[in-house]
Amino acid sequence: MNLNIKATNTTATPAIKQFIEEKLSSLEKFLRPEDKIRVELEVSKKHHTGLVHRAEIDIQPHGYYADSRGVDFYAAMDLVMPKIKEQLVKQKDKKVSERRKVKRLGKGA
Predict the structure, then answer these.
(1) How far apart are CA 23 and CA 1, in angstroms?
(2) Closest to 81 (Cα-Cα) out of 51, 56, 52
(3) Which of 26, 33, 67, 92 could bridge 56 with an S-S bond, Cβ 3.0-4.6 Å?
(4) Helices (H), strands (E): how many in the chain?
(5) Domain range for residue 77?
(6) How many structural domains comprise the chain?
(7) Per-residue model confidence as pLDDT tens for the chain (109 residues)
(8) How far apart are CA 88 and CA 4, in angstroms?
């Protein structure tokens, strides 16, 4: 897993980087080692209160993408993880269903 963390209008502290790596470790079973994961953290300059922190995850070459906003980076990451995981699980289920369908059709012939 090739991980790239970008911070806009803020700095990515070692604690935040470690938190992101721990959260993304749950996705390893869905990804190949050569996949590139880009995580972008951004603080809005226009707003000073509310959901000003944004977390975005982009997984290439598959094209999975999710983003969310929160009161801090930890909350934003907690909100974005189910979104990206749902996409990965859906794709894996499709692949498994296709394999089972091919095997089932192969036995009947």
Answers:
(1) 13
(2) 56
(3) 67
(4) 2, 4
(5) 2-108
(6) 1
(7) 799 999 999 999 999 999 999 999 999 989 988 999 999 999 988 877 788 999 999 999 989 999 999 999 999 999 999 999 999 999 999 989 999 988 888 875 5
(8) 19
